[in-house]
């Protein structure tokens, strides 16, 4: 069964995107299509703040892009040496919070110890830290539509047909891709099923999935914020990953694609 993930590919130490691997364990053929690009902002301001850990109680990295911004600051401003010599140790004496394991992995590569990655999403992490420190935010990147989004989606639908499920990884990814998906999916958009089905609907769902060309698409979200964005568009969410990890998403999609209440 084919599933579509609207994200860019990230190879792990095994040389494969972990989402493709985890979904493959359940017999699901996943394709990744990037829908977002990123522009870095305010790097000079961010670099200055990184140079003065004494002014802050800690760091919060909200995404892998935020870590990439930190790396750019160190490289472009010739601060790698001073980072290794003193700044890294000073920041490690404070709390360094991250949203998710992917971000934690990147932060560890610049030598910082992290906490909070097991919270699962930004809302739970905020609850975890909001009473501990006063916060100052720096916006270091903005999202824009990936230049190849329409062409890549057109190619996928023409070659693979309508996927059994589509996973969105951010509200902005939904914003930039939904119109194209609606145009390409045609009538199958009207057949979107929620997570529960009557026995009659289950039978219909099974019949639909035996023919990819008439398959009913289910929508999945990587977390609650993205799920709410889908709901705001009037689209039922069949699956929200319990945590933003390949394992949790694969488990959720597999469960959502199984007919409920059948037999």
UniProtKB/TrEMBL annotation:
<dbReference type="GO" id="GO:0004852">
    <property type="term" value="F:uroporphyrinogen-III synthase activity"/>
</dbReference>
<keyword id="KW-0627">Porphyrin biosynthesis</keyword>
<feature type="domain" description="Tetrapyrrole biosynthesis uroporphyrinogen III synthase">
    <location>
        <begin position="19"/>
        <end position="134"/>
    </location>
</feature>
<comment type="pathway">
    <text>Porphyrin-containing compound metabolism; protoporphyrin-IX biosynthesis; coproporphyrinogen-III from 5-aminolevulinate: step 3/4.</text>
</comment>
<keyword id="KW-0456">Lyase</keyword>
<dbReference type="InterPro" id="IPR039793">
    <property type="entry name" value="UROS/Hem4"/>
</dbReference>
<comment type="function">
    <text>Catalyzes cyclization of the linear tetrapyrrole, hydroxymethylbilane, to the macrocyclic uroporphyrinogen III, the branch point for the various sub-pathways leading to the wide diversity of porphyrins. Porphyrins act as cofactors for a multitude of enzymes that perform a variety of processes within the cell such as methionine synthesis (vitamin B12) or oxygen transport (heme).</text>
</comment>
<protein>
    <recommendedName>
        <fullName>Uroporphyrinogen-III synthase</fullName>
        <ecNumber>4.2.1.75</ecNumber>
    </recommendedName>
</protein>
<dbReference type="GO" id="GO:0006780">
    <property type="term" value="P:uroporphyrinogen III biosynthetic process"/>
</dbReference>
<dbReference type="GO" id="GO:0005829">
    <property type="term" value="C:cytosol"/>
</dbReference>
<keyword id="KW-0350">Heme biosynthesis</keyword>
<dbReference type="GO" id="GO:0006785">
    <property type="term" value="P:heme B biosynthetic process"/>
</dbReference>
<dbReference type="InterPro" id="IPR003754">
    <property type="entry name" value="4pyrrol_synth_uPrphyn_synth"/>
</dbReference>
<dbReference type="Pfam" id="PF02602">
    <property type="entry name" value="HEM4"/>
</dbReference>
<dbReference type="GO" id="GO:0006782">
    <property type="term" value="P:protoporphyrinogen IX biosynthetic process"/>
</dbReference>
<dbReference type="InterPro" id="IPR036108">
    <property type="entry name" value="4pyrrol_syn_uPrphyn_synt_sf"/>
</dbReference>
<comment type="similarity">
    <text>Belongs to the uroporphyrinogen-III synthase family.</text>
</comment>
């Amino acid at each position: 069964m084919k599933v579509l993930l609207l994200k860019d590919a990230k190879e792990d130490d095994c040389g494969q995107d972990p989402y493709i691997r985890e979904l493959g364990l359940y017999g699901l053929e996943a394709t990744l299509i990037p829908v977002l690009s990123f522009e870095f902002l305010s790097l000079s301001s961010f670099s200055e703040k990184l140079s003065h850990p004494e002014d802050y109680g800690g760091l919060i990295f909200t995404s892998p892009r935020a870590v990439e911004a930190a790396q750019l600051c160190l490289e472009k401003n010739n601060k790698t040496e001073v980072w290794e010599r003193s700044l890294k140790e000073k920041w490690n004496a404070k709390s360094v919070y991250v949203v998710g394991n992917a971000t934690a992995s990147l932060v560890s590569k610049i030598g910082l110890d992290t906490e909070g990655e097991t919270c699962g999403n930004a809302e739970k992490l905020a609850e975890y830290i909001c009473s501990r420190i006063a916060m100052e935010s720096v916006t270091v990147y903005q999202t824009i539509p990936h230049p190849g989004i329409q062409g890549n989606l057109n190619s996928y639908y023409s070659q693979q047909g309508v996927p059994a499920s589509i996973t969105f990884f951010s509200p902005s990814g939904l914003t930039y891709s939904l119109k194209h998906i609606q145009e390409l999916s045609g009538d199958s958009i009207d057949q979107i099923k929620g997570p529960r089905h009557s026995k009659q609907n289950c039978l219909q769902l099974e019949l639909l999935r035996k023919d990819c060309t008439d398959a009913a698409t289910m929508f999945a979200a990587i977390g609650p914020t993205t799920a709410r964005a889908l709901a705001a568009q009037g689209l039922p969410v069949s699956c929200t990953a319990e945590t933003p990890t390949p394992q949790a998403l694969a488990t959720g999609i597999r469960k959502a694609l199984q007919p409920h209440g059948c037999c």
